[in-house]
Amino acid sequence: MIAKIQSFFLECENIYQFANNIIKQTFARPFEWREILKQCYAVGNRSLFLVSFTAFLAGVVFTRQSRPSLSSFGAESWLPSLVSQAVVRSLGPLITGLICAGKLGSNIAAELASMKVTEQIDAMEVSGTRPFSYLVVSRLMATTLMMPLLVVFADMIALFGSYLTVHSINNSSLQLYLNEVSVVITFLDVFSSVMLATFFGFAIGFISSYAGYNSMNGTSGVGKAANTAVVISMLFIFIIDLLSLQIVNLFRP
């Protein structure tokens, strides 16, 4: 029991030191702009198709599932409003965050853990290169910057899938659908969605980088780091989503 408590506090200390190094290296010159742009492209390229496909299916499925409930109350005309609010406020960021946690989290953790096992990180330190800034900060900034863009794109794809579903049922026009969506979507909805995506990206980048950069036990640690990154990232995504919902509701009329 005492050993577990000591291990817990030691892990907290390691996390604190890791976060402290991120703060220091983020503002330390020279900035790794080329690596940051490379990682931004990698983040978007790895996730774009899967996020788009999942968001489209989510828009279609959610619309079809919501229609019978609204029809039973004679409120089928509210379907575009209901779907758009659900997608922009929570469904879009949540789906994108979970997809990226599984796709990006495992990739980042496995990459860094593999470099740790093969002693490439140690070699970079000996050669005078700043491995922490080059490997960790660049990936953290990439996930933080790209996640809002992926969420906005996913929201658009989900709403497009919803429109196609509504059009196939009611033969409604795109202009009518967009008018109904624009009436209910507010600036607070868009802003909270973007900020939520930013926190999701930061959490995925931080947790995945920490799991990979501090991996141990040789090659078996690579798989453990990837698994830890995915599970903990998904858990924190749900926690952040719950907390943000409580905070944003305080500002809603």
Order of helices and strands: HHHHHHHH
The number of strands is 0
Share of helix, binned: over 70%
Shape estimate: elongated
Q: How confident overall, as mean pLDDT? A: 85
Largest sheet descriptor = none
How much of the sequence lies in strands comes to under 5%
Compute the CA-based radius of gyration.
Answer: 21 Å
Low-confidence stretches: none
Distance between the termini: 49 Å
What is the count of distinct domains? 1
Structural class: mainly alpha
Compute the number of helices: 8
Keywords for this entry:
253 residues, mainly alpha
Task: Explain what this protein looks like in three dimensions.
The longest helix is centred in the first third of the chain and has 40 residues, at 33-72. This protein has 253 residues and is mostly helical. It has one domain (33-249). The protein has helices at 2-26, 33-72, 79-117, 120-126, 131-170, 174-184, 187-213, 220-249. The termini are far apart. It is elongated, with a radius of gyration of 21 Å.
